[in-house]
Amino acid sequence: MDQTLDAILQKQLDTIQRIELFLDIYKCKEFVAADLNKLKEDSSEAAEKLSRTREYIETDRKDVCSQFIKIMQKMRRNELLMLHLWEVGPHSEAANAKPAQSDTPKSMPLKELQNDNPSKMHLTDYSKSPFATRSKSKDIHFYDFDAEITEEEFETIPKYLRGRMQLSELIQFLEKDVIKCFEEKYTLMYKHRKAVSNQHDLTAWKDYNSMQAKFPDHKFITQDDLLHKSGKALDKKSYAKLQMLRYLHILQEVRSEGTVYFLWIYSR
């Protein structure tokens, strides 16, 4: 019984102390309220900065890894090119030996193979190739617009942005609409002036080259380029896909003088 009374008395004493502490704080409310609010804002700002720093570090790590992979791919292509040039060059025994009579087709130098059927090349190589001087366009793909979206990267896109869209839909839009638009634009833009005979193409060629001065270090298309490519206005789903490509750091949207530009910023 005594223990029960002691517990009740102790509980009442604790309650009285809390009430007294509350009254003491309430009395100085006007002096500490501003400081407490400031402390709350600083805590919120610090948490936000910490989150941004964590996101930046993760993005930077992905960029470094992607740049390493890209460098390794270039080194591998150069290695294959050197081996091929060695095989068809003047140092090879086959080049010095007398060709035998055979029905087997004669192997062609790398340059001729590229001229006949170039599946892919860099824009800088294209601008110096015979295709840039020919009036007839050829369907050429460029390493400059290679992009890959993994399942893991797709899952990082916020759910509210992805909705029910599948990865295959986004990849199809990227390859069939966006990349194709880039390739068709720069196939024409990198042509020599004398090779552009069609008046419509000439007007587009002049517009492309004049607009490039705004972003000299980037490849880009405009919203109008996508409209002309698809032949219809972009719908809500297409805009969502463009937003996802921006989130994955494949495109960057820039608005200037009423024109919407999509810059190619992908790096792997």
From TrEMBL:
This is SKA complex subunit 1. GO terms for biological process: cell division; chromosome segregation; mitotic cell cycle; regulation of microtubule polymerization or depolymerization. One of its GO terms (molecular function) is microtubule binding. It holds the Pfam family SKA1. InterPro entries: SKA1, SKA1_MBD_sf. Belongs to the SKA1 family. GO terms for cellular component: mitotic spindle; outer kinetochore; spindle microtubule. It comes from the Eukaryota. It comes from Anopheles arabiensis.
